[in-house]
Sequence to fold (806 residues):
Amino acid sequence: MFKFLKDVVSGSGAGVKDLPYNIGEPYSSAWGSWTHSRGTSKDDGSPVSIFSITGSNANDGHLAAARNGVKRLRTVRHPNILSFLHSTETEISDGSSTKVVIYIVTEPVMPLAEKIKELGLQGVQRNEYYAWGLSRIAKAVSFLNNDCKLVHGNVCLESVVVTPTLDWKLHAFDALSEFDGNNEVSTGPMLQYEWIVGSQYKPMELAKSDWATIRKSPPWAIDSWGLGCLIYEIFTGLKLSKTEELRNTASIPKSLLPDYQRLLSSMPSRRLNSSKLVENCEYFQNKLVDTIHFMEILNLKDSVEKDTFFRKLPTLAEQLPREIVLKKLLPLLASALEFGSAAAPALTAYLKMGAWLSSEEFNKKVLPTIVKLFASNDRAIRVGLLQHIDQYGESLSAQVVDEQVYPHVATGFSDTSAFLRELTLKSMLVLAPKLSQRTLSGSLLKYLSKLQVDEEPAIRTNTTILLGNIASHLNEGTRKRVLINAFTVRALRDTFPSARGAGIMALCATSSYYDAQEIAARILPNVVVLTIDPDSDVRSKAFQAVEQFLQIVKQYHEKTYVGDGTETTTASGNTSLPGNASILGWAMSSLTMKGKPSEQAAHAPPKSTSPLVSAVSNASSVVPDIQSTTLISRASSGVDTTYHDMDDQPAPVSPTSSTDGWGDLENGIHEDPESEKDGWDDMLPLEDEKPSPALANIQAAQKRPVIQTKSQVSIPRPKSTSNVGKDEDNDLWGSIAAPPPKVGAKPLNANPSATIDSDDPWAAIAAPPPTTRAKPLSAGRGRGSKPSGLKLGAQRINRASSTQKF
Fold:
């Protein structure tokens, strides 16, 4: 018989050496003759609790009761009963004597008395925690008495332990026995090991060993008395020393006092059933008990109840005991989110609770769940994650972001919801610095390129701002290839004022990445245009940007040509606009910015007449290479050619209509004969001083009457000025190139086959370079020296006589 019992409790080990756990420091208290020690698993180091009891020989009565406790603990399973992991019995030699030791390994727990001292709860929070813990023990006792027909026999403070999640659990099953109340013939003791129970915890009938009365009593009579003893010890903080102390009710809450007295009734048949204790007692109705109970039956709740509960939870969590929230509610929320039973608002409460943890605990307990949630198909969960990414984004490692988080986040760039696209874009402010160069160049920039032509103006604006923020994380080659094109070709040409302003700010914030040639040839021509922008904020930013970039170019000039003669190839201008040292804050505040409905229209080319389309086509055909065009030719050509420098990447279609005055930057010069005069008037220089003789001749030529045969759309000037540069009269060209001529007539048609009137210096400059080499102006300045007609503006001119003098 002994061998059989030993086999039952021995488990898989034959001795301490074979015990797959390491025994650590013992706790100061334990139930009965047991020793409660901390322990860890030898396999993975996970924490456990190890209970041990020692006897002088194998027939020791305490060892027999311990074997009963081991057997019962292995076979009885309930959420509120201590979980059994392993057990073994071994003999240990102690000098001349041999001792028998039984070990029980369970989930990690600690004595309730020590945990109460550690928490140090007071007032309402203490009562809420005690109510929750007592409800757990009452359910465990009810399970034993009502469902299993078992009698624990020794419910008290020492028989309760607490898990790391602060759950109270019942153990100490050494005296546990079946209730045989239906066996009227039996006269022997019903509890075989009742002698190990302290006399102060025994009800009157058990103290007298009145087994007949016990058998006639309900199954819960003995354990209900034990619950009363437990309540007394919890609220007084003292261990019960004698039964008479139970009459001292000064420490018992008033709402619990009636049920406490019913538990300790002198008549066993009138004692309160533990199952009725939680249901009927007002003391157990509080916020903590209700909250945890709701979380435990979350799967049974409908979506409306879940949504209402989780929206209130962040506020409710602040009112609950902090330790219980972090150790109990937080794991429950994590489990509910991972398995999909929690609604999206639960994420807000989860992150708020997680913020109360230390950084180390946050990375260990919260981040793994968040990373798993990024794979969720629930759009509401994805929105919640992106909205709160600033709370946990910095804690994510670069490897986790690049391999596990970004692939799921990137799907939001092409989502049909504009709100989700914007949140995805915003999240890149936190995630992009953690991405590898391969992901940045091969994936993120492609998405951003599409978002720069998004139908939402706020998204286009923030895409530009994001590029400015992540520029420092791009390699040099990528910056050279992307930044200027993104900021000038698209941002500065956007119809949304804030998008243009963002383009200017981004250029200024990234000014250190551009050399002087890029600034002079590609940036300044595009920024200067915005100094006459309809929006005052854009104009203000444009003027400041022009000053900044001119200062950079000036510094380059001084270093290269004025200094010691050492040539510098790049100018690292760190001067920036006020507030541009970091445009991140500006980006965050603009994320909620929404454009007008007209600015969010689908991408479509603007309607135009046939002549305008022809003009656009011609303008595109005569501008092959931007890098060969000087700044003067840009100003005088009348066509913005900056955007044709992307030989390998065509200029994108404008995302918005061009009816706001910016069409000439995007689709060629849209001028009609009526507006041409006004368009040039504001560019004429002031004539405060007497003009030079050469300029006087030009102005006189402008006033001559002109008879045109046919009105056509003006052809943009080619951007190459090589032919003009070969003109022998370079000095005259330089004196008149800056102020564009004031033309009152309609554009004239070109006639390449016609010759140039050498008497009129305007004829040499008014039209694009002819196909044949022009004769030098010095060849003849007298009027009437050539019989042929004057060719002005590449148009055919009809005069009354070929010999007419001006």
Summary: Residues 294 and 493 are 56 Å apart (CA to CA). Residues 1-15, 565-689, 706-767, 774-806 have pLDDT under 50 and may be disordered.
